[in-house]
Amino acid sequence: MKNFIPLLLSLCLVVASCSNKKEKSNSPENTVTIDSVTQVKSSVNKQLITDDYFKGHGVEPFWTVTISDKMIKFKTPTDSILTPHTEPIYAQDNNVKMYTIHTELAAIRIEVIQMECINAMSGKSFPYSVTLKYKKGKDKEFTTLEGCGQYITNYRLHDIWALEELNGTKVSKEDFGKELPYIEINTGENTFMGTSGCNSVRGELFSERNKIRFTNIISTEMLCATGNEKEQEFTKALASTISYTIGNNRLTLSNPDKTLLVFKKVD
C-alpha cells in the first residue's frame, strides 16, 4: 500500500502533464495561421529574388549562363568565367542579340535567338535558343555549346499597381464611374489581373529586360453608368505598352511615342 500511493501520484502527474500539453497544442499560440503561412511564402519568394535578367543552359556537358546589368556568369561542372556586362548587338528586328566579351583571362560570344528551343534532356520548351562560344587563357580555338534560355521577369513588377495617370492626365475614381483601374502582376506566372474601372481585365505578360507587353487581354463587358470611354482608353494604352520603368513607388508604362500609364504601388 505504501508503494502504491507514490505510484498513483506519479500517474496523476503524467496524466496532468499530457492534458496540459494537449491543451497547449490546441491553443492559438500553437495554431498555424494564415499570417504565418504568408510569412513562409514571403520568405520563399525572397529566395527567388534575382538581379539576373536572362538565363541560358544546356546539357552534354551541363552548363549555365546568367546575365545581369552588372555581370555575365558562365559555369560548367569543372569551370566558370565571370565578366563585366556588355550591351548586346541587335540584329534581324531585335530577334537576335549578340554579346561579345573579351578580357585578359577569357573571351565569350553569346548569341540569343527568339525561337522555340527544346531542352534535350527534359523535353521542356523555352522561348529562346542560345549558342555560347568561349575560350580561356592561351586557348586558340573556341568551344561551342548549344542550349536554351529565357528572360527572367523583374521581381519588382510583382505587386498591385493603382492607376494615377492615363495618357499624361491625372485620373480619379469619378472618371471611371466605379473605381480606379489597377493591375496585379504575377511575375512567377507572367500573368496579370485587375480592373479597368468597372470591368475586370486579365491577360499574359511578355517581359524582356526593360521591355514589357501585356498580351491576350480579356475583359468583361458590363455596361457601366459612366466611364466606358475611359475604360477603353485604359485598355488600349495597356495593349500599346512596350517599355517600363520603376522608381519612387511608381510603375511607368510607355511606347516610343509617349508615356501611356503611370501606376502607384499599393501598400
How would you describe this protein?
The strands form 2 sheets. The chain has a 9-stranded antiparallel β-sheet with strand order 4-3-2-1-9-8-7-6-5, with no helix packed on it. The longest helix is centred in the first third of the chain and has 22 residues, at 4-25. The chain has 4 helices and 18 strands. It has 267 residues and is α+β, with helices and mostly antiparallel strands.
Instruction: Name the shape in a single word.
Output: elongated
Oligomer: single chain
Largest sheet: 9 strands, antiparallel
Give the SSE string.
HHEEEEEEEEEEEHEEEEHEEE
Distance between the termini: 70 Å
How much β-strand is present in the residues? over 45%
* Mean pLDDT over the residues: 83
Class from secondary-structure proportions = alpha+beta
Reading side by side through the largest sheet, how are the strands ordered? 4-3-2-1-9-8-7-6-5
Count of separate DSSP helical elements: 4
Unreliable stretches (pLDDT < 50, length at least 5) are 1-44
Helix/strand layout:
Layout: H1 4-25, H2 34-47, E1 52-58, E2 63-68, E3 71-75, E4 80-84, E5 89-91, E6 96-102, E7 106-118, E8 125-136, E9 143-151, E10 160-166, E11 169-170, H3 173-176, E12 182-186, E13 191-195, E14 200-208, E15 211-219, H4 228-239, E16 243-247, E17 250-254, E18 259-265
Antiparallel strand pairs: 1-2, 1-9, 2-3, 3-4, 5-6, 6-7, 7-8, 8-9, 10-11, 10-12, 10-18, 12-13, 13-14, 14-15, 16-17, 17-18
